Amino acid sequence: MKSVRNPENVSTAIRNSVRKYSPHDVGVQGSYRTGNIGDRALGEIFTKTLKKNGRRAYLFDKNVEYSNAPNRILGGGGVLHDWYGTDHLQKRLNYVTSGERSFIIGVGAPGFHSEEARNLISETLPNVDLITVRDQRAKDNIQAVCDIEITVTACPVFLYDDPEAEVTDKTGVNFRPYFDEKEDMSDEILKNYFGYEDLHKATERYIANAQNICDQIENPVFIPFHSRDEEFARKHLDIPIFEHKFSVEKTLNRVSRMERMVTTRYHSLIFAAICGKPVLTLAYEPKVAAIADRLDVPAYKPHKEVPFEFTSVSNVSSIQNSAHQNLELLFEYLE
User: Fold this and answer.
1) Are 146 and 201 in a shared domain?
2) 154: exposed, middle or buried (Cβ count in 10 Å: 0-12, 13-18, 19+)
């Protein structure tokens, strides 16, 4: 028998065949395998709750053409936007509307600035059976170009429970690469989609804020929510740093063991809220400010002056009820 020249191609083909022919009546598409803990948490909560409801679900990231599911979900994350162009938006919307029933559940919508994207949204979303979004801004951005029914709920990750790990005297810290440290996001995107006006020396001021916060708090330990968070911390911070593990359970347990949390990433704030931790929140994008407002805690621009104070979270139970609504509405359609 001749040897296979490119065995990696064989394994990819096998995986794609498994996706296509594995029995599943619900396909869920999102950015679940990028190394981002928050996105992974979304994928896990969808598969867990769908399975509990008696559904056979399969998660898809890029290779959506291998799904034969009659019910299709675009699930969670800030997936409705065109800041990288419209190709990715087109693929996502094509997938979710190519089954018998289509659902967009618990998503964010940073906005649509190109005419092509606006036309795509206005032509496609009226064909979706159910749309829920994680905050009012997402609803407003969609309805600015498409007059359809949308329900504001909350991020499905709020459906996780506090593991109630033994609490230490540590302060958890999370920062993410941003401004010039996030190379795939231009100043134009920051201004057009996220309302930044003053970006003069934003990177330097953000890093200085991160370092100053770590200098002031007692017993800081860095908790990465992505491998790039760990790289940022090792480059700029002189504090203990957990190694990034692509595990929702491990990351949630790390947060649960903290006495309080400095949060930057969206889901670092959600994990802290689930675990009932006082927080100091940097809102690098409006989605963070939106959830901070619902939790009744202040949020500060990462490159501006940051008061050094932690605030207890509120309204967690009501937000979790809103997160449950995503699935309650979905299951009504799936019955």
Assistant:
1) no
2) buried
